[in-house]
Fold:
Amino acid sequence: MTKLLVRTVPDPVLREKALPVLAVDAATITLMKDMLETMYADDGIGLAANQVGVLTRVIVIDVSDSRDGNEALMMANPEITWASDETFTYREGCLSVRPCSSESSADLYANVTRPKAIRVRYLDEKGAVRELEAQELFSQCIQHEIDHLDGILFVDHLSALKRGMIMKKIEKLRRAMGDGKPL
Ligand code: NI
Structure:
């Protein structure tokens, strides 16, 4: 497996809409595994293909405490088939909404409200159609990752004021890091 470079704002690939996977082939499985390795390396709980510069509808998620890969989910073409009216609020952050994926700050997180429960249909790493129901953090994470596939970032769910504060903070952190650090 290979750790991939995580793109950060304002990389335009984060604003593109990813295209459906036509078949879960060897290349898709390699992408899924590399994305998982990248997500674990940067201590994320989810990652979408746009974030590694690939415009394919693939996401990976692991919201478990153990983070040993046993509960990792790799999804192609994830689609929400039902969402609850009841909502849930969680303090979200994103590996792409940072000065670089490994550099974070408490100021780069913000509360986002989304449906509390969802059902999602997807293709697993064997190409089989699966459906699962997710609640709370798990649901929140899947919705955040599917947003990425549509070019949407969690900051788009915030007020312009709050979004502006996060973007300014990223610029400030980048200046503090200097030019020598890879973005
Ligand atoms: Ni994200």
